[in-house]
Each structure stands twice: as structure tokens, then as C-alpha cells.
């Protein structure tokens, strides 16, 4: 670890420990888990570019910032970020704390959606089992485990298939640089199906360091839309880990629009026969934005299949990193893995790095990958202009079309349309970061 | 309407057009024929404003304006339309969206209000019938996966909607079956009027049976080596280009 990294890590730890206050007394296993996480962080520290998986994403600018744990703020301060019209179920968090006044929960027998702190008192044994993470493999997950305040707990009963999506919105309002550590835990029961939107927004300079754990039982299905619309001055570190049991299917859309630096790691373990995942991603960068999406798909059982399609659209001096690691374990015969990454550069200074990593330990599998980095097609541009469409509008049309290919795979038509509009806005008015993105805040 | 004077065009260092003169009056139909690689598409693309060509000499006037100074989108809005020899596929852009954007760009330029959704759809359906195109193609991405003939019809649909003053049709007849050739020709003929001019680039006399040209030009090796009336096309069909090129002292 470099000096700047270790100094920052030490300072963060000291500051966070002095800022940390519990809303209520915690059970001893939880206290132990926090202590262990602090110890793990002290050993691991923060990732550096010397680590293979952080080679293209430098944290140095972020480490220079003296973040403190986010203070509590009035719920009403978050109102501009909340869309009023969205139906239940929605759950809103402000600066890492549950905001009941802005949330609208339907706590039914089939769908349990409650704050994590409440889940811990309702189901202590269950949560002790699944929350204590024995291998905190990097500094950020250790920090999250040590300092999380609250989060969302969702359990969908077997065979339940609610019609409307669940929205989880995390708002951070920062006057001074501050950090939140939200957590999300989703359990989708056997043969149940759900659409869930996880959305990050905010104002000012801050760091969101978030962890989501998702478990799909047999034959379950989850459409997971992760929308990163952080403020232009924000940093975002997100980890999502998914376990998909036999016959289940996980479909994700990771949309990265905001932040100055954002890194999402999505790992999916296809843990039972016939489990499948389709991972989609769209990164849009302007100015000096740096968007990093790492995925790891583990084919652990036979007949599992994965499809992956990530795209980036980069203007100005922005950058994207896509790293798609696919592991096919020895037992995963008859599995299929497909990966595509396409990157559109709108300026000379923009840069896209795309890295497929295939690790295949079984001969009886089909894997393919393809990647492109390029500019807008001149011929298509001329074709549009020859129809009277101005240069600017033609560029916009082609750029949106490039993004649309990812949105087309969003099944819920309402979400697809809303997201299309949101992305249109981001492409048209890149400077209007977070505050503009009031959608999904519900 | 269109005056091309001594037009010389190169791609890189390679001269492609070597002194073209062409005058087209409103209401006229001109056919340009000529061997492969002679520069016909180059001429059409230069008229439409494609980048990548260097005009080394000469000028083009369109309604007495210097065309070479206008950006391609302005030429289109002024009323120039090029039906591409190879229409471009644009994944992710719905055909109908392009049509609407194109029409409204033109209308805005003319100081007309934008068409509302209803009027636009009505107009589009009328033109669809004219060119015999399936409505489903409106909602697919522009030209993506269209058959050769569907692409050509789509070009004519765009033309019918945009009602250009000068239409350049670059081998719109190639790849059309016999019935399609007839419908597309009818579509073009429906556009004919005393204020409009049409330039047809074609290899086949067959098209000229449907659309009757006032003038026929032969472009070979970057020059117009012969111009004549409709009968010239018939002679070409019979004798090919060889006799002309030798007659002009240009090796075949
Ligand atoms: N980008 C380019 N670079 C180099 N040469 C080119 C380029 N584009 C066209 N040419 C050349 O210019 C010449 C004229 O091409 P053009 O497409 O205008 O011919 P054409 O008369 O339309 O032929 P066809 O009847 O086959 O359509 C050809 O020799 C062609 O190879
Ligand atoms: Mg040609």
C-alpha cells in the first residue's frame, strides 16, 4: 500500500470511529462483526492501482478528501429528489438512514420490505448468519460492514410475483465531504419474481460505499435495475453479490450516469443447475467522469448460462473501464457464456478500457466475447444530415440509438421509457448532474 | 436550377471527376449512365455534401446559390434529396423517428409549423401506399435487416415525404424486382412537376421505360463524354459504352 493510501485509510478509520453513533444498542454479534471488519480494514487498507483489478481506477484524488460519516439531515431536505407519483413499494434512505416519512411500504405476508435495523431485531438469528461476512476481501466491504447505519431488507415469499417494482432510493446530501455505507439484502423465494430498482442520487461532495447481497432461490427471477445518478462531485463504490440457485434467472441493468468516480463490482454465482444471468450495463461519461464496471460470473453447475452486454458513451475527457471476468468451474459442463462490450468515444480525449477475462476449467462449454471501441459511424451521420437533420441532432440520435440497444432489454415498459428519458437528458445536458434525475426516487 | 461548371473532384490525390458540366432546369429529368467506377455516385455524393471529397476546380450553383458552401443538412432543407445507392442501416433509430425529424427539419426551414403526430402519420401512410411499402417497416430501425428492395422503397418513401426540388436517384432501380420497379417508378413519376428536377443514375434502359428522361448523359472516367435525348439510352443498351469511349479517344 502506498503512503497516501495508508495515511488516508488511517485517517478515515479514526474519523469514522469518532463519528459513529448507534441509534440503538446493538447485539453482541453485531458489535463483534463491526470490530472484525475494522480489524480487516486495518490489514487490507484501500485498493491501489498495483492490484490487478484496480489497475485502471486510481483512488488517489478521492483519498485526498477528508470524508466524515454523513450526518443526519431533515427528511424534507430530500424532497426535491423524490418523485411523488411513484406507487408503493418504495423505500428512501437519506444519508444512510431510513426515512419513513418519504417511504411507502406495503409490508405484506408475501413481501417483507423493512429497514435492515428492524430486520435485525425481528429475525436476529437469520441475519447473524447471513450478515457476518467471513471474507472481507477488500477495504471497502470492510468499511461498509464496520460503519453501516441502515439499509433495506427484502424477502419475497415463494411463488409471489408482485406486479409493480420495488424502489430503493439512497439520497446523500452533503455540505461537507461525507460518506454513507448503505446495505441491501434481497431474498427472492422459490419460483417468485420481482423487479427491483436501486437508485443512488444526491448533492455535493460525498462517497457512497454500498453493498448489496442478493439470493435467488430455485426458479426465482429478479430484474434488477441499478441506477447510479450520484451528484457530479460524488464518488461511488458499489458491490453487488448474487447467488442464483438452480433454474433461477437474474437479469440486471447497471446504469452509471453520475459521480466523478464510480466503481461497481457485480459478482454472480450461478450456483445450481440451469441457473442463468443476463447482465447489461451502460456507462455515460462527460467532463472528467470515470466509470468502472467490474463483473465476475461464476458458472458453478452444469447447464448454466450467462450473457453480458456492456456499453459506454464517453465525451470530453471521461473514461470507462469494463472488466468482465467469467469463471467456468470444472463441474459446469454444458454451460454457455457470452460477453460483448461496445464503447463509443465522442471526443479524442475520452478513453475506454475493456478487458475480458475468461477462466475455463471445463471443455464442454461454449464461450464467446467481443469488444469494440470506436466513434460514431460517419456514413450514418451523413445519411441523417442528407435528410436535413442538423449535425448536433444527428449526433444525438446516433448516440441515443447506441444506448437504446441496452435499454431495449428492460422488460418493464414504464421503467424502459423513464430510463430512456433520463438518459436522453444526461446526453443532452450533461452538466445538470444529480438534482435533475428526480426519477426513481421513489 | 442546377448548374455544374467544370467540376473537378479528387479523393485524396486521385482525381475522380475531371471537368463535369451539367445544366438542369426545373421540370426536367436527366439520366446519367456510364460504366462502373466512372464517378456517378461520386457526383451524387458531392451534390449532397458528403465530406471526404476535394473539389479542386469548378462550381455548383443550386438556384443561383453556391452549393459547395452549404452543409449537407442545409442542402437537404433547401430541397436536394439523394436516394443512396447503398442505403445506410442505423440500429436503434426507428424509421418513423427519422422520417419525422427529417420532415420537421425541412418545414422549420421553410417557416412552417411542425406536423403534429396525427397529420404526420396520415401523410406517411398515404406515401407508404404510393411506394407500396409495408407499414411495419416504419417501426423498425432504419434499414436494419431490410431486404434490398425494401431499402430502395424506403429511400423513395423519404423522398415522397420530403418533396424535394431536386431529387438524385443513385441506382434506385438496382435490386428491385419487376413489380417493385414499376411501383417505385410510379412513385417517382407522381413527384414530377414543373418546379422539380430529377437526376436518375442508372445502368438500365428498363427504368427509362417508366420514367422518361429529357436528357441522357454518359459519364465515363470522370467526364461526360456524350449527351443526348432519350434515344441515346436505347443506343447504349444496344451497343454498350465501347464505341463512345473510342470515338472520344478515351481508351475503353
Ligand atoms: N473513398 C475512396 N477512396 C478511393 N477511391 C474511391 C473512394 N470512393 C470512390 N473511389 C473511386 O472513385 C471511382 C468512382 O466511384 P463511384 O462510386 O463514383 O463510381 P460509380 O460510377 O458510381 O460506379 P458504379 O456504377 O459501380 O456504382 C471508383 O474508381 C472508386 O473506386
Ligand atoms: Mg455508383
Descriptive notes:
The complex is a heterodimer of chains A (442) and B (252). Chain A is 24% helix and 38% strand. With 442 residues, chain A is α/β, with parallel strands linked by helices. Chain A has one domain (3-376). Chain A is globular, with a radius of gyration of 21 Å. In chain A, strand 2 and strand 3 form a beta hairpin. In chain A, strands 1, 4, 5, 7, 8, 10, 12, 14, 16, 18 and 20 form an 11-stranded mixed sheet that branches. Chain A has a 10-stranded mixed sheet with strand order 3-2-6-9-11-13-15-17-19-21, covered by helices on one side. With 252 residues, chain B is of the alpha/beta class. Chain B has a single domain (2-247), classed as Rossmann fold. Helix content of chain B is 38%, strand content 28%. Chain B has helices at residues 40-48, 72-78, 95-109, 117-131, 148-162, 178-191, 205-210, 231-239, 242-247; strands spanning 2-11, 14-24, 29-33, 54-62, 65-66, 80-83, 90-94, 141-142, 166-170, 197-201, 215-220, 223-228. A 6-stranded mixed sheet of chain B has the order 6-9-10-3-11-12, with helices on both faces. A 4-stranded antiparallel sheet of chain B has the order 2-1-4-5, with helices on one face. A two-stranded antiparallel ribbon of chain B has the order 7-8. In chain B, helix 5 (148-162) runs parallel beside helix 6. The longest helix of chain B is centred in the middle third of the chain and has 15 residues, at 95-109. Chain B is globular. The chains are: A alpha/beta (442), B alpha/beta (252). Chain A binds chain B through residues 377-380, 382-391, 393-394, 397-398, 400-405, and chain B through 48-51, 71-73, 75-77, 81-82, 84, 87-93, 97-98, 101-102, 105-106, 109, 141, 158, 162. Bound molecules: adenosine-5'-triphosphate (ATP) and magnesium ion. Magnesium ion (MG) is lined by residues 40-41, 85, 170-171 of chain B.
Amino acid at each position: 500500500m502506498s503512503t497516501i493510501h495508508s495515511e488516508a485509510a488511517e485517517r478515515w478509520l479514526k474519523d469514522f470511529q469518532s463519528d459513529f453513533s448507534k441509534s440503538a444498542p446493538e447485539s453482541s454479534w453485531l458489535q463483534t462483526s463491526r470490530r472484525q471488519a475494522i480489524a480487516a480494514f486495518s490489514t487490507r487498507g484501500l485498493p491501489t492501482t498495483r492490484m490487478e483489478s484496480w489497475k485502471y481506477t486510481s483512488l488517489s484524488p478521492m483519498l485526498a478528501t477528508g470524508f466524515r460519516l454523513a450526518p443526519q439531515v431533515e427528511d424534507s431536505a430530500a424532497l426535491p429528489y423524490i418523485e411523488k407519483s411513484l406507487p408503493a413499494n418504495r423505500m428512501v434512505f437519506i444519508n444512510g438512514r431510513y426515512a419513513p416519512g418519504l417511504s411507502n411500504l406495503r409490508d405484506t405476508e408475501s413481501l417483507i420490505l423493512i429497514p435492515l435495523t428492524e430486520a435485525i431485531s425481528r429475525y436476529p438469528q437469520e441475519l447473524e448468519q447471513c450478515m457476518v461476512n467471513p471474507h472481507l476481501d477488500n477495504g471497502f466491504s470492510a468499511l461498509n460492514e464496520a460503519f453501516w447505519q441502515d439499509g433495506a431488507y427484502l424477502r419475497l415469499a415463494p411463488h409471489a410475483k408482485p406486479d409493480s417494482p420495488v424502489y430503493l432510493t439512497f439520497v446523500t446530501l452533503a455540505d461537507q465531504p461525507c460518506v454513507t455505507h448503505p446495505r441491501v439484502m434481497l431474498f427472492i423465494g422459490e419460483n417468485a419474481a420481482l423487479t427491483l430498482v436501486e437508485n443512488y442520487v444526491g448533492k455535493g461532495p460525498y462517497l457512497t460505499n454500498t453493498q448489496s447481497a442478493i439470493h435467488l432461490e430455485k426458479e426465482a427471477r429478479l430484474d434488477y435495475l441499478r441506477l447510479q445518478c450520484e451528484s457530479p462531485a460524488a464518488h461511488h463504490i458499489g458491490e453487488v453479490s448474487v447467488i442464483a440457485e438452480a433454474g433461477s434467472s437474474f437479469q440486471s441493468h447497471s446504469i452509471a450516469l453520475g459521480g466523478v468516480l464510480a466503481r461497481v463490482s457485480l459478482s454472480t454465482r450461478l450456483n445450481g443447475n440451469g441457473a442463468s444471468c443476463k447482465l447489461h450495463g451502460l456507462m455515460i461519461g462527460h467532463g472528467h467522469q470515470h466509470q468502472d464496471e467490474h463483473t465476475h460470473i461464476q458458472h458453478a453447475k452444469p447447464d448454466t448460462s450467462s450473457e453480458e452486454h456492456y456499453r459506454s458513451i464517453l465525451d470530453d475527457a471521461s473514461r470507462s473501464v469494463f472488466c468482465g471476468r467469467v469463471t467456468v468451474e470444472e463441474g459446469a459442463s454444458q454451460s454457455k457464456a457470452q460477453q460483448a462490450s461496445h464503447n463509443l468515444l465522442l471526443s479524442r480525449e475520452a478513453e475506454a478500457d475493456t478487458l475480458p477475462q475468461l477462466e475455463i476449467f471445463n471443455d464442454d462449454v461454449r464461450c464467446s466475447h467481443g469488444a469494440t471501441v470506436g466513434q460514431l459511424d460517419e456514413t450514418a451521420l451523413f445519411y441523417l444530415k442528407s435528410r436535413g437533420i442538423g449535425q448536433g441532432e444527428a449526433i444525438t440520435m446516433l448516440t441515443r440509438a447506441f444506448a437504446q440497444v441496452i435499454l431495449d432489454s428492460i422488460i418493464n415498459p414504464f421503467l424502459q421509457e423513464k430510463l430512456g428519458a433520463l438518459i436522453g437528458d444526461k446526453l443532452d445536458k450533461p452538466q445538470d448532474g444529480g438534482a435533475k434525475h428526480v426519477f426513481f426516487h421513489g | 436550377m442546377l448548374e455544374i461548371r467544370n467540376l473537378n473532384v479528387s479523393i485524396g490525390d486521385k482525381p475522380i471527376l475531371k471537368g463535369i458540366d451539367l445544366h438542369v432546369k426545373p421540370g426536367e429529368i436527366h439520366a446519367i449512365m456510364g460504366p462502373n467506377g466512372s464517378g456517378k455516385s461520386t457526383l451524387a455524393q458531392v451534390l449532397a455534401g458528403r465530406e471526404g471529397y476535394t473539389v479542386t476546380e469548378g462550381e455548383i450553383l443550386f438556384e443561383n446559390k453556391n452549393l459547395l458552401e452549404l452543409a449537407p443538412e442545409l442542402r437537404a432543407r433547401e430541397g436536394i434529396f439523394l436516394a443512396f445507392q447503398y442505403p445506410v442501416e442505423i440500429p436503434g433509430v426507428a424509421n418513423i423517428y427519422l422520417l419525422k425529424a427529417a420532415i420537421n427539419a425541412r418545414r422549420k426551414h421553410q417557416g412552417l409549423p411542425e406536423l403534429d403526430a396525427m397529420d404526420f402519420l396520415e401523410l406517411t401512410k398515404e406515401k407508404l401506399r404510393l411506394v407500396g411499402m409495408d407499414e411495419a417497416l416504419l417501426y423498425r430501425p432504419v434499414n436494419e435487416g431490410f431486404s434490398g428492395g425494401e431499402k430502395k422503397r424506403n429511400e423513395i418513401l423519404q423522398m415522397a415525404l420530403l418533396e424535394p426540388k431536386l431529387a438524385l436517384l443513385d441506382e434506385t432501380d438496382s435490386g428491385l424486382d419487376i413489380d417493385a420497379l414499376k411501383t417505385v417508378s410510379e412513385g417517382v413519376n407522381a413527384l414530377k412537376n414543373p418546379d422539380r428536377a430529377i437526376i436518375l443514375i442508372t445502368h438500365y434502359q428498363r427504368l427509362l421505360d417508366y420514367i422518361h428522361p429529357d436528357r441522357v448523359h454518359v459519364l465515363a472516367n470522370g467526364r461526360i463524354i456524350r449527351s443526348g435525348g432519350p434515344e441515346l439510352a436505347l443506343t447504349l443498351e444496344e451497343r454498350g459504352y465501347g464505341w463512345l469511349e473510342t470515338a472520344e479517344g478515351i481508351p475503353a
